[in-house]
Write a structure and sequence with these properties.
Layout (H helix, E strand, L loop, with lengths): L1 H44 L9 H7 L3 H11 L6 H19 L9 H21 L6 H29 L7 H26 L1
C-alpha cells in the first residue's frame, strides 16, 4: 500500500513538473511574440528624415567630422532586433555629446548651442525608453519624431545664420554692436565686483 501511495505521489509530482514546464514554454513563446511585434512596430516607425541643407550650409557641415559621424549614424537604420536599436541609441547619445564640444566657430552661438542641448536631451530620452524592461513603442516613436524636429531646427538655424551673414551692416551698426558688447562687459564686471564684495 505504501508503495502505491509513493508511486501515486511520484506520478503526480512528475505531472506537475511537466505542467510547469509547459506553462513556462507557453509564457516564453508569448513573450517572444510580443518582443517581435514590438520590434516590427519600432522598426516601421524608426525613420529619421534627411535635413534640408542649402548648398552653402552643406559645404560648411561637410568639414565638421563630428556632425557627419552623427548624421550618418542617425540615418542608418538598425535591422536585426531591439538590441540593435538600443545600441544605436547609445551611439547617438555619445556622438551628440562629442558634437557639442566641436561646433564650428561660425555656428557656435547660443541659438545653435541651445538646440544641440535639446537634441541631446531628446536622444537621452530615447535611450532611456528603448532600454526599459517594458518598452513602450509609443514613447520611442514620439522621441524619434521629436529628434527629427530638433535636427530640422538646428539645420534651419544654421541656414538663417548664413543668410544673415550676407546682409550688409547698416551705417553705424558696427559701432553700436561694439558699444553694446562693451556695455555688457562692463555690467558683467560690475556684477562680479558686487559678488566679490558680498563674499
Amino acid at each position: 500500500m505504501k508503495k502505491h501511495i509513493f508511486i501515486l505521489f511520484a506520478f503526480a509530482f512528475f505531472l506537475s513538473c511537466q505542467n510547469k514546464d509547459a506553462i513556462r514554454r507557453e509564457e516564453a513563446r508569448k513573450a517572444e511574440i510580443k518582443k517581435e511585434e514590438l520590434f516590427q512596430e519600432i522598426n516601421k516607425n524608426w525613420n529619421f528624415k534627411t535635413a534640408d541643407f542649402t548648398e552653402e550650409t552643406y559645404n560648411i557641415v561637410q568639414q565638421w567630422p563630428e556632425w557627419n559621424n552623427f548624421y550618418n549614424e542617425l540615418l542608418r537604420k538598425p535591422q536585426t532586433d531591439i538590441g540593435a536599436f538600443q545600441r544605436k541609441a547609445n551611439t547617438l547619445v555619445n556622438q551628440s555629446e562629442a558634437m557639442q564640444s566641436t561646433i564650428p566657430e561660425f555656428f557656435n552661438v547660443t541659438q545653435i548651442q541651445s538646440r544641440f542641448l535639446v537634441l541631446d536631451t531628446k536622444l537621452k530620452m530615447l535611450k532611456t525608453y528603448i532600454h526599459l524592461d517594458e518598452i513602450s513603442s509609443e514613447d520611442v516613436i514620439n522621441r524619434v519624431e521629436e529628434i527629427n524636429t530638433e535636427v530640422a531646427s538646428i539645420v534651419n538655424r544654421m541656414k538663417t545664420i548664413l543668410e544673415r551673414s550676407h546682409f550688409e551692416k547698416e551705417e553705424g551698426e558696427e559701432e553700436m554692436l561694439h558699444s553694446l558688447s562693451i556695455d555688457s562687459l562692463r555690467q558683467g564686471l560690475e556684477e562680479l565686483r558686487r559678488d566679490a564684495k558680498i563674499q
